[in-house]
Amino acid sequence: KKKRTDDVRIDVLTQIKGITKEKANLLLETYGSIAKIASSDVKSLIKVEKIGKITASSILEALNEEKEVSY
Fold first, then answer.
1. Distance from C-alpha of 46 to C-alpha of 11, rounded to nearest angstrom
2. Among candidate residues 55, 30, 48, the one with its CA nearest the CA of residue 63
3. By Cβ atoms counted within 10 A, which residue in 37, 58, 62, 68 is the most buried?
4. What are phi and psi of 19, to 5 degrees?
5. How far apart are the C-alpha atoms of 37 and 24, rounded to whole Å?
6. Rounded to 5 degrees, what are φ and ψ at 58?
7. How do the pLDDT tens digits run along the chain, 71 residues long?
8. CB 54 within 8 A of CB 36
9. Structure pTM?
């Protein structure tokens, strides 16, 4: 089980395969929110340092699949 942080957004992102706390921070610094990350595309995600094509695809797949879940 991964260690939880004070930032829920980091916790959500680090659940995604290939996303470390460092990468989650870079994504949030770039996009500002999970919603903005989810609505971006592979082409813009790979511009973020340390994010490759496969990781970018995983991010979009994971975030866009979670949107359908209602809380």
1. 21
2. 55
3. 37
4. -105, 115
5. 10
6. -60, -40
7. 556 778 999 999 999 999 999 999 999 999 999 999 999 999 999 999 999 999 999 999 999 985 555 54
8. no
9. 0.84
